Amino acid sequence: MKKLCIYFLVFSSLTLLSGCKFNFISNLYVPDLRKVASNEHTVIMTPATFEVEIPSKDDCAEFSTKLSELMSDLISDISPKGCVDRGFETYLLMEAEIPIVNGFAKWLESTSMFGILMFENNLGFSISLMNNLDKYKILNNRLSKEYHQTFDISKSTLTIVLNSSLNEEVVLMQDVFVNRKPVDRYLEYPLKRRTRVEIILSNVASSHLESEGSAFAFILKKWVIVALS
Questions:
Q1: pTM score, two decimals?
Q2: Which of 13, 14, 33, 42 lies 20 to 30 Å from 198, alpha-carbon distance?
């Protein structure tokens, strides 16, 4: 039986298998966020990419088929998109659609394992990445039966690419990487119109998503600076 990922420790006859990396990249669009924010009943699907660690490119076809079967009822429209090598690691790329919802009650209605939750506070709209722990447990039980291994989000890289609109925006962030640069203090980031910013969450956020089912990403300020023509 092939293992999902290949790094492990061996002591005598005992093998200790480590959880596999499960990286996440989502493209968010400010107009979508503001549309969901304006109506708590509105749900918009947004694209996401999952990078699943596998043994090698030689196993790409096999894992593409099997992992699609294991995940298809937990994440909407998930489909494999090939494999890539990164240093000594190989990843299967899988594209999917995840929901953006307004309010925790709406998140509880979702059938997706992953999603984006937003809610209003005094500063603006708080945006978090969500993990349905019940569905995550189902997936890891399936992986354990099939490969004797599981995913471990606490070791994963969580990335959000935020795309602006025709207006300028202000994004509030802390303890993240912004365009690959570390931000350890409170930052008001000016997001110019028709631009994007890459936000990589911290390992604390990854661990919180693994254990508690949520990872705070940023706050989108309430007001919009109207662009002049």
A1: 0.88
A2: 42
